[in-house]
Amino acid sequence: MEENITIPLHEVHVSLGGKMVPFGGFILPVRYSSDIEEHLTVRSAVGLFDVSHMGEFSLSGPGALSFIQQMTTNDAASLTIGKVQYSALTNEQGGIIDDLLVYRLGEEEYYLVVNASNIEKDKNWLLQHLPDSGVSFKDESSATCLFALQGPKAVDVLQTLTTYPVDQMPYYTNAKIELRGLKDILISTTGYTGAGGFEIYVPLERAEFVWRLLMEKGAAWGIKPCGLGARDTLRLEMGYCLYGNDMNDTINPIEAGLGWITKLNKNFIGSEPIRKAKTSGVSKKLVGFILEERGIPRSHYELYTVSGDKKIGEVTSGTQSPCLQQGIGMGYVAIDYAVPDTLLAVQIRGKMLRARVVALPFVKGTI
Amino acid sequence: MNFPSELKYSKDHEWVRVEGNVGVVGITDFAQKELGDIVFLDVTSVGTTFSKEEVFGTVEAVKTVSDLFMPVSGKVVEFNTALEGNPELVNSDPYGAGWIVKVELSSPSDIDTLLASDAYTQLIGA
To answer: Which of A225, A354, B32, B87 has its CA 20 to 30 Å from the CA of residue A8?
Structure first.
């Protein structure tokens, strides 16, 4: 086992009361005060997450677009400069290598943001397929800190630090702005919370300055530093998949409910088996469910028919929703049960608790 | 963190306060802090007799779930029903309003096998 990596602002988080835990190969703050308080602060006001563990790759050159088209499921040709797209890398079998964001920064300039635990895997996969000329690849992960300023008041906080009209940026767009004298800071209207806000990419040397600035300016709106705990409950309320839990190398995007980012009118690595899966149908699918009895589903708990006599799948993510105050979860079930309003049973410590399949998201976001 | 000296502690992070032949049981300040926000106590064992260190219920936090272990042998005679509506009392007042069960001690000498406050503090490295 390799040693976990300490993020640049480790000491800042410790001094804020952050409880630091290993996650995806990094030591990260799981919470500062209370998961629920941090969660609700993001839903109602604004929270700041240090997600510097995420990976960032630059891809540029005349061949960048066709390379991205070959490697990812979504249609990068539809990206105009300043747009961001949610997409996935798939293997030859159509299994999901990672989910990622694709930014178009300039005419031939792209930026990929990948999951922390997959940085090396993704990098190797991309480099293995990189054409001999026309595309230059650069891993910027260790030189970049990423802060997620999330919540309905995030725009007010960020606006105090720049003259750029950040309130005019539509969802899933990016811009390079001047932030308190720092030039060319990449920001995007993205996030993993459904609460709106920004992701801010900061060069390592200025990261602590920017973090402190955001915390200081955010005080007027009740900003709180937020940890992985709240990040997980926020994303789960929105039904967003977490790589490693809700998807992996053996699950295709159709099964994972990611058909909407899988454009089969183009060819990419894995498109053929995914096309087949789409035509002939898949045998299991990711669903969201709400517990109708008191209990909390957790990953790897088993899912049964409501009568409890047949196992039909497994939970991949679960928690108690801080907004609904009910147990919510996602999991793969046999396709016949992947229909909203179907009743299931979740086995929790030997008891069968009734759950209902629901359409995602669990909670309406504020984007 | 606070570990009152009048209580006895188990290595599994439960505390006991002896009141006659009854032990009041809860989880320690350290345990509630490690777990984070507690949202549900699953204790359906009132009336059941357990040996020391047996599981008598579970505590569900937002992030994780953990078993509750009997610090002493005995019969669970009462569950703190205030926790049904307000499980967060275990976080805010772990030694007071956040008590979890009352146990009729079947072997009062079990108490002597538990840790005193300073030994428990040492155990968790606080």
So the answer is: B32
Same domain, A42 and A152: yes
Q: Is residue A342 part of a domain?
A: yes
Q: Which domain holds residue A215?
A: 5-52+142-237
Q: Which residues contact B56 (CB under 8 A, 6 or more apart)?
A: B43, B45, B48, B50, B68, B69, B70, B76, B101
Of A35, A39, A296, the CB nearest to B60: A296
Q: Does A298 touch chain B (CB under 8 A)?
A: yes
pLDDT at A2: 64
Size of interface A-B (CB pairs under 8 A): 41
pLDDT at A20 over 80: yes
Give A229's contacts in chain B (Cβ within 8 Å).
36, 62-63
Question: Mean pLDDT over all residues of chain A?
Answer: 97
Chain B residues close to A232, C-beta within 8 Å: 63
Whether A175 and A44 map to the same domain: the answer is: yes
Decide if pLDDT at A3 tops 90. Answer: no
Under the banding of pLDDT at 50, 70 and 90, the label for residue A10 is very high
Partners of A111 in the β-ladder:
A58, A103
Residues A306 and A178 in one domain: no
Q: A150 and A294 share a domain?
A: no
Using the 3D structure, point to which of A202, A221, A237 is the last residue of a domain: A237
Q: Does B40 touch chain A (CB under 8 A)?
A: yes
Contacts of B63 in chain A (CB under 8 A): 30-31, 35, 229, 232, 319
Task: Kindly report, residue by residue over A142-193, the tens digit of the pLDDT.
Answer: 999 999 999 999 999 999 999 999 999 999 999 999 999 999 999 999 999 9
Contacts of A301 (CB under 8 A, 6+ apart): A314, A315, A318, A329, A346, A347, A348
Our count of domains for chain A comes to 2
Per-residue pLDDT of B101-125, as tens digits, reads: 999 999 999 999 999 999 999 999 9
Chain A neighbors of B40, CB-CB under 8 A: 294-296, 320
What is the DSSP-derived secondary structure letter of residue A321? -
Cβ-proximal residues to A120 (8 Å cutoff; 6+ apart), any chain: none
In a domain? residue A293:
yes
Assess B86–A contact: CB distance below 8 Å, yes or no: no
Contact A35 B60 (CB under 8 A): no
User: What backbone phi and psi angles, to 5 degrees, belong to B25?
Assistant: -125, 140
Domain-embedded: residue A161 = yes
The neighbour count for residue A280, using CB atoms within 10 Å, is 8
The CATH-assigned architecture of domain B16-121 is Beta Barrel (2.40)
State the pTM of this model. 0.95
Confirm or reject contact between B67 and chain A (CB < 8 A): no
CATH number, domain with residue A288: 2.40.30.110
Chain B residues within 8 A of A36 when measuring between CB atoms: 37, 39, 62
* Chain centre distance of CA A329: 16
Question: Would the ipTM clear 0.85, i.e. be above it?
Answer: yes
